[in-house]
Design brief:
This protein is an alpha+beta fold and 182 residues long. It folds into two domains: 3-68; 73-181, Aspartate Aminotransferase, domain 1. It has helices at residues 3-18, 22-31, 37-48, 52-64, 72-79, 88-99, 169-181; strands at 106-109, 113-117, 121-129, 132-137, 149-150, 157-161. A six-stranded antiparallel beta sheet has the order 1-2-3-4-6-5. α3 (37-48) packs across α4 (52-64).
Length: 182
């Protein structure tokens, strides 16, 4: 097995062996700034019980990721990697529904989510766990329901989606309403 194949194997096995994907470990390191490679490794080994080999790989990849430009596709790929890969079709359904609202819909991937904008952001699509996609909607003044829950911040409401069948007429209606208000 060559070095690249061995590295790919470690990355593929990382969620099962460490409990998190490479991208999720990047978020941990982003939240705990470090200056030297050894400091990042010490954090992962000491605070999270990671083995030396995995810690070395994660820190090296984390430090290297800033050296190449990141495209929107790369950002989405990272969000729906590892344990969250099964959520990608739900994300695709949501984005396709939003894109059908009009040619003025902008799909803007960020590090942890994808903004859906018109003149302003009307929705935010995120995968906060491996079991659900969360859609934040800008629906100020809309009455909450059991499914359309109140939220804080720019997105006044949110809806959790656990399966493709939940990207239904009701959800698309809320998305369209947020789009029309934007």
């Amino acid at each position: 097995m060559d070095v690249d194949a061995a590295t790919r194997s470690m990355i593929d096995n990382m969620p099962a062996k460490t409990g998190r994907s490479l991208e999720e470990w990047f978020l941990v390191l982003d939240a705990h700034p470090y200056e030297k490679h050894g400091q990042g490794m010490a954090l992962l080994k000491g605070e999270y019980g990671m083995s030396h080999g995995f810690a070395n790989l994660v820190v090296a990849r984390h430090r290297d990721r800033g050296s190449a430009p990141t495209t929107g596709d790369d950002l989405v790929d990272a969000q729906y990697a590892g344990a969250k890969a099964e959520l990608r079709p739900i994300y695709e359904q949501i984005v396709a529904a939003a894109a059908a609202f009009g040619e003025d819909v902008e799909i803007a991937p960020k590090k942890t989510g994808v903004s859906l904008r018109r003149r302003k952001q009307f929705a935010l699509v995120e995968a906060p766990s491996a079991t659900r996609v969360q859609i934040g909607l800008n629906l100020r003044g809309a009455a909450p329901t059991e499914r359309l829950r109140e939220a804080g911040g720019m997105c006044t409401h949110r809806v959790d989606v656990r399966g493709g069948d939940e990207v239904d007429d009701q959800l698309i209606g809320w998305m369209r309403e947020a789009y029309e208000r934007a």
